[in-house]
Amino acid sequence: MNDFIIPAYNRLPVAFEHGKGVWLWDTEGNKYLDAMSGIAVTVLGHSHPAVIAAITEQAGKLLHTSNAYRIPQQEKLAQKISELSGMEQAFFNHSGTEANELAIKIARLYGHSKSITNPKIVVMEKAFHGRTLGALSASANPKIKAGFEPLVPGFIRVPYNDIQAIEQITHNNPDVIAIHLEPIQGNAGIIVPDSGYLKEIRQLCDQRNCLMMLDEVQTGIGHTGKLFAYQHDNIIPDILCLAKALGNGIPIGACLVSGAAKGLIQPGLHGSTIGGNPFACHVALTVLQTIEKERLLINATEIGDYLLSALREALSSKKIVTDIRGKGLMIAIKLDRPVAELRLLGLKEGLLFNVTAQQVIRLLPPLILTRQEADQIIIRLTTCIDKFNT
Asked: How does pLDDT run across 97-136, given as a tens digit for each residue?
């Protein structure tokens, strides 16, 4: 460990030197299958030729000017992502938590525009939206909030996947101006809601004149088999938060608006010094173009379905496994006990995955995953679980 780094992370005893596709090599030369994509970031895998070319090209031209001037790369990215999402305008920053912070600010502006002096936002149990104070307050986990009180007020929490609870809250609280949620709860253990849940929330927001705010920081950019998870339900939110996979490892976040959320942010109400710089925007545009060109959404659907089905078959006889769920290439395997130490077993088997919600193995492999590589995930993960259970 390095004493000069603030110890904010429980890091595993490995450091990586280079990567190619879904594979990583550590400083000792050992090879690992990356089934977590840097926590849903490297959707195109490591060292993708298109990303390398985009980084090299733009780095040789221009990295940063500032938002005091027009940025053509930002304008191209905003148009592309708006067309792909059905949204109308975009603001670019560096991370998902910043995107969620802006969403909260826009919601409050919306409330005040309706002469609501104390606007409320409905958020979900088990939600995770980030670690800055606003996003932290919207999140649910008490452990990540401890010691940071007082938190930001103005949030009402309801159970996830319970439309009746939302209906009751919005009916009894005229100050509710937005509903903020993840289409699939990632940090909670890849909780997939019932079919039609998002569509019902969209209808309810329309009835109550509330903003529908979707945090797709983890689900967005292809993980579920659609570029955005809400597209499975053929709806469009009022606010959309993105980051992670948008830059395939280059830091960039985005908050997109449409409908009633458009036009609320005016000059001086929000800003970012480096957000949306030419470099990050050029890379992000390349990521979106590559996903289209290589038909990776189809691959995410087909390989995701195969991986989910094959995992269920391979692990069906293991009593320690209590649930296997997911959508596209977002897959969770829930065990009947805490599984943090499984990550170390994964290292020994050359497999990288994440553990969340104490008992859930979270798989977030890149969109480029092949069937043969999916088979390797199954073989190595099954071995890990068997060793863990002995």
From this structure: 999 999 999 999 999 999 999 999 999 999 999 999 999 9
Domain ranges, residue 232: 51-293
- pLDDT tens-digit map of 27-64: 999 999 999 999 999 999 999 999 999 999 999 999 99
> Are 137 and 259 in a shared domain?
yes
Please say if 155 is a catalytic residue: no
- Asked if residue 35 lies in contact with residue 368, where contact means CB atoms within 8 angstroms, the answer is no
Active site residue 244: yes
The active-site residue, picked from 120, 126, 244, 334, is 244
Catalytic residue among 91, 92, 128, 279: 128
Provide the domain count of the chain. 2
Catalytic residue, candidates 92, 126, 215, 353: 215
Which spans in the chain are helix H?
37-40, 49-59, 72-85, 96-113, 133-138, 142-145, 163-172, 197-208, 278-293, 296-315, 342-348, 371-388
58 and 199, same domain (yes or no): yes
148 plus 261 within the same structural domain = yes
Per-residue pLDDT reduced to its tens digit, 182-210: 999 999 999 999 999 999 999 999 999 99
